[in-house]
Amino acid sequence: MIGIARRGLSLLFSFIMIVVLGTRTTLAQAPTMPTCVSSAELVRQMEEMQRELAYLRQRDAQREAWESSIVERLPQVGVLTDTVSYSFQESKSESNETQTKDTGTSPCPCYPVRCHGFCSCQCPLKEAPCIECPRVSTLNPYFNMHVFGAFKLDMLFSGARPISPGTPFFLSPDSARGLSQDTVDIHARQSTLGAAFTGPQIGCFQSGGLIAAMFYNDNVLADQYGILPLQAWGELKNEDWRFAAGLQFDVFNPGAPTVLPFSALCASGNTGNAWRGQLRLERFVHPRKDVQWTIQTALSEPITSTIDPDFRISEDNGWPNIEGRIALGLGKLEGAGLAAKRPFEMGVSGIVGQIRTTPLAPDNRVVANVWGAGADARWKINDCFGLAGEVYTGQTLGTYNGAILQTINLDTLQGIRSSGGWLEGFFYWTPCLHSHVGYGIDDPIDRDVADSAGSLGRTRNETYFSNLIWDVTSTFRVGFEFTWRETSYKTLLDNEGAGFHTQVQWTF
After folding, report:
1. Cβ contacts of 497 within 8 Å, gap of 6 or more
2. This prediction's pTM
């Protein structure tokens, strides 16, 4: 009897404790609920909690399985993996931990996270923060990707036939019989697709990259649709340094006028602005917040055959071109990303290199020196008006859009010397309506140009332009442009004529 009584008291005490704890839990979770809770309600709540716990455990297991599958698919090139001898790492770990304790400092000052005592890129990284929708997910969880682009329609009408009609660089020779040369070209080859990548911190640097392409053929003068890579590079960057590798625009004379055609006054004094494989190092010096010195140097591909197929008859001479530039920027930085500029910027740049050309007779191989010197400037005088321009001089600069796209004399295979430049004035009638007026000239030395008629030896090319651009919204733009071009030939008829260009653009 005593045992039965004790068992009954124990069950009664347990029931009272369940009721008290259940009441407190209910009050904490929902103060407005009644204080009287039945045992059936408590049982129901406990069953719900058990189901929720089982669901959470299932979701956690699914997340762990997904993370394991991602890690297995990630590339392992260039990183330390667990296949490295663990005993070796373990022995080194003890010495590193001892050193850290003795000195009180981490052996990884910029990236203090250590794996087995080493500054390993296999260490855990902080994942890129989630960005608001819409967003693009990447296989590698440490990168964020921003997709961008533009849909463009270009309509060009020319009184004298340009080369090429849809992307005018210079004019073809005039007709000896006075035949009409009117042309019209309506295309969307300037439409662009790209993606900007932002990666994790690596040491003291922020990693990132850019990919961009247009719908041109690999030979722009062919005037056909295709895929034309413009940019494909990765970078490590901070406030003081930038290291980049991949397909990039030239360091030499990087400025460009604001015009509607893709040609952008190339062959009319705008050198640089070609894109080539490049290994680049940049240094940024900030004496004050509103002053910046930029020092750039690069090893680059000597031959790029994007514009003129004639460039393919030459090749590199076994070593890369060397490009360099020093620039000064004054004023508060305006804009963001690659489009950020200061009100006043001025730079000087240069390039050296070599190319060689080997005709059918091997004994006639000619090595031509490549060199160039240039200066670029941009001055936003006030919110409404400003000036920009470039000048250059050099030799064998056809692949840098100089010498009217002529690199060597096709008769002698020697490099062509040339000089030129462009100047632009821009005026903002309103923040959304602006005009750009300018002039460009490219002037090779006449005696350096080939005499043979089949070579289309060009001795002078000039372009005058004026446009009106209306940014209707931040994503929709309409532009109108008038141009006058004059092209002189050494053995063929010179030509001149007007062009009209209308462009409609949607950006995203």
Report:
1. 158, 159, 160, 171, 181, 484, 485
2. 0.73
